[in-house]
Design a protein that fits this description.
With 251 residues, the chain is an alpha/beta fold. It contains 7 helices and 9 strands, in the order βαβαββααβββαβαβα. A 6-stranded parallel β-sheet has the order 1-9-8-5-2-3. Strands 4-7-6 form a 3-stranded antiparallel β-sheet. β6 and β7 form a beta hairpin. The longest helix has 23 residues. The protein binds 6-phosphogluconic acid. 6-phosphogluconic acid binds next to loops.
């Protein structure tokens, strides 16, 4: 039985009528985080989430217009990736490219892609080096946040990024990026994921969850059940969960 930790820094929870209004709110929050980061530090580092939930968010960000946000000063990292080539339909990078990157003026050199086409262990090591090189370039030291905002989803089993319940990656204390095996129901199984240690380098965390399939995992996570990996992620300054009524168990 996993500990139910007493959570003094409980996340803010916002329940929306539907996925569309959730995406509108999420886009406003991403925009605010980008603007605040660039105003304060001259740049913004976002960690994008995979899966399908971010599609509506990406569409809202694109609809704001190419000049609405400081894309030229923004770096885009990824929370996880499936170990497939970028043109594979399962690629998180491919989804972000098609729904966001192709439509906003973020410099190509600012998009930090996880190389899903490489061997998983090699790709994990290379991405770790990429993130650490970014931290050096941006003069982020050990007690600073590297990501201004980390976007995360939730699986029906409570996973987030590719940190799955009971996975060895949950106990990693040093590495920022690991190669992992997802459970059989989450093919493709070979994955790359940020670790809790890397996610702890986020100033703000925004968790998006829609649909009744997420309801039980969301309820357990928000009760502090850390058997749900998503329950263990906190932004240094702010953690917000955006739910639709179905994921919140309100309908
Ligand atoms: C992935 C994601 C994963 C995702 C959840 C929710 O690679 O699949 O990063 O953590 O956020 O599985 O996925 P949906 O948004 O498709 O429900």
């Amino acid at each position: 039985m996993a500990a139910i930790h007493d959570d003094t820094d409980a996340p803010e929870i916002v329940v929306h009528a539907d996925a569309e209004s959730l995406a509108e709110d999420a886009a406003a929050r991403v925009a605010a985080a980008m603007r605040a980061a660039v105003a304060a530090r001259g740049r913004c580092v976002l960690a994008l989430s995979g899966g399908s939930t971010p599609r509506l968010l990406h569409a809202r960000l694109v609809a704001m217009g190419a000049d609405a946000l400081p894309w030229a000063q923004t770096f885009l990292a990824f929370g996880d990736e499936r170990c497939v080539p970028p043109d594979d339909p399962a690629s998180n990078y491919g989804m972000a490219r098609d729904t966001l990157l192709a439509h906003v003026p973020v410099p190509e050199t600012h998009v930090l892609r996880m190389e899903g086409e490489r061997s998983p262990a090699d790709a994990a090591e290379r991405y770790e080096a990429t993130l650490r090189a970014l931290a050096t370039r941006l003069e982020v030291d050990d007690d600073d946040a590297l990501f201004d905002l980390a976007l995360l989803g939730v699986g029906a089993d409570g996973h987030t990024a590719s940190l799955f319940p009971g996975g060895a990656a949950l106990d990693e204390r040093t590495r920022w990026v690991l190669d992992v095996q997802a459970p059989p129901e989450y093919a493709p199984r070979d994955r790359l994921t940020l670790t809790f240690g890397a996610l702890a380098r986020a100033r703000e965390v925004l968790v998006l969850a829609t649909g009744a399939a997420k309801r039980d995992a969301v309820a357990r996570a928000l009760r502090g059940d850390d058997a749900m990996p998503v329950a263990r992620v906190r932004g240094r300054e702010r953690t917000t969960w955006l739910l639709d009524r179905a994921a919140a168990g309100d309908s």
